[in-house]
What we know:
alpha/beta, 2-enoyl-CoA Hydratase, Chain A, domain 1, 2 domains, two-stranded antiparallel ribbon, 13 helices, 49% helix
Amino acid sequence: MPTSAASGSASRSWPTRWRRHRTWRKVPGPEAAGARASSGPSTTTTTRTSVRRRLTILAAAVLVYAAVAGLFVISLGGLSRGEGGAALFGPRVAIVELEGVILEADDLVRELKDYRDNAAVRAVVVRINSPGGVVAPTQELHDAVLRLRQAGKPVVASLGSVAASGGYYVAVACDEIYANPGTLTGSIGVIMQLANLEQLLKKVGVDYVVVKAGQFKDIGNVARAMTADERRVMQALLDDVHGQFIGAVAAGRKLPREDVVRFADGRVFSGVQARDLRMVDALGGLEDAVLGAAKLAGIPAPPAVIRQRRRFSIMDLLRNQLGGTAAGALLRPQLPVFQTPLYLMD
């Protein structure tokens, strides 16, 4: 009979269909298929096509938005609104952070250059928390700030807990300097520390042999005391760098050189004392410095503020925590004196 044959065929096809598709989805029987065929084009297929189209458009929009947002973050770094909700787009004040002992300057110099070339950045605040560091990188940062100013962008220094020696060297390149009343700053001087291990080496039985060509090639040799001639050579070297420091302070603060010499003896000053000596312009924190920079650039207050996110490594931690201590000195390689850096350190 036709009816029973059709029924038998349908009953046999169900397990076969389930095994073929390997799914728990119920496969419609022949009655539903006949009804679908008689009703013309499938409304279900049309609905699915419409949903797919909408999802495709939505996914494309999300990808475009993510790409634009990614480029924005890469080019500008982290963005935070100024107090009062400044506009996302428009003139901005950038904050550059100088933290810890200054051992190299490449990253910060590159960051300053990025802001110099960024038309949206109208002013820069250099936030300084540093006891100083090696002379050459300090001078590179000083010069990078000057180039930023030459490009027509005001630069303001905000001194944190400590901005001494090399930290202050960088600050004097700025248009204005803000310090907290209790900020430790100044320490305008140069230092090189050399050990004399002659007696210790004798006790442990170490014979330190040096072969050299040139009278002063092993100056600062840890296996012997420094001679009078060697001390004169080293003192002349430090005096020269100290003179460069004094000149930078006099030029940056627009003070007579003889006035700077009076307090450029390595002393550390509080923010209040530094203001009285005209070493800083005003007392205030980071927010005051940002508002001051915005005013110099003609940006309405409160300004939008941006800063770059920088990676932080374990060596940064060691440098910040131990840089100015005896333990920090042990982390530095022991080098011959002309490979040993001079320090503008507090």
